[in-house]
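Hey,
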Amino acid sequence: MTQISASLVKELRERTGAGMMDCKKALTENNGDIEAAIDWLRAKGLSKAAKKAGRVAAEGLVGILTKGASGAMVEVNSETDFVARNEQFQKMVTGIAGLALAAEGDVAKLAGMTYPGSSHSVEQYVTEMIATIGENMTLRRTAALTVNSGVVSSYMHSQVADGLGKIGVIVALESEGKAEALAEIGRQIAMHVAATNPIAINIDGVPADVLEREKGILAEKNQGKPAQVLEKIFQSSLKSFAKEHCLLDQPFIHDTSKTVAQALKEAEKAAGGAVALKGFVRYALGEGIEKAEDDFAEEVKKAAGG
């Protein structure tokens, strides 16, 4: 059997844009002959898929799966919302979300796992779907939360099918209390996170660079004041910053007369035990992806096959 070097795989990938695993398989099937491997990829439709890989994919779906004390979420992108409404695409995202618990938040691990009902990896399956449907698609990210005891609750905004939508949230609550009561308060908090997009659970979890930026803004507003005065102003401002950006300090959207922390404390009575918020993750579809501004008339023309 011909030994396939990493450099040869890299060269084929650079020339075709196909996935690493597809390139390795193409070379293996063709005894290391790179030209034959290129033809093999073309015949399989994989080089066709690679041509689409440079196109911006900012639409798609967020998928969620929760099981008791564990939950996971994925974002799979497509170029258009038309594809996001495609049953084949939705089925694929559901299948990938079903594997995400075992991937434990590692997107590379998830990409290498075997797609349900096939002999192909998730990465290979997505590539095949690109060739079949005709749009670029990417498995962008995944996250997972687990608690020793308690629940991981979820909420999906703009849901298009069970566990699929545009904004997804998972929330981890650790408690020995009743699962049903925990699931209810967990879902309410997940809805709150979807609406308010907090930075962290509390002020201690806010990244240092974010706080430094806030400090810089305050310094600009209070030019000329001594350093010790500026520090006092900054420390005082942290309370209002936390109220706006930190989950436990925010006014609870379901009852703004109390904070999320107070709502959690009140929920302990129904749950029959102490409840601790251990983590949350919020995915908004396409956030952070620079979208191309297409000419609408040209877009319609393309959709019509013109």
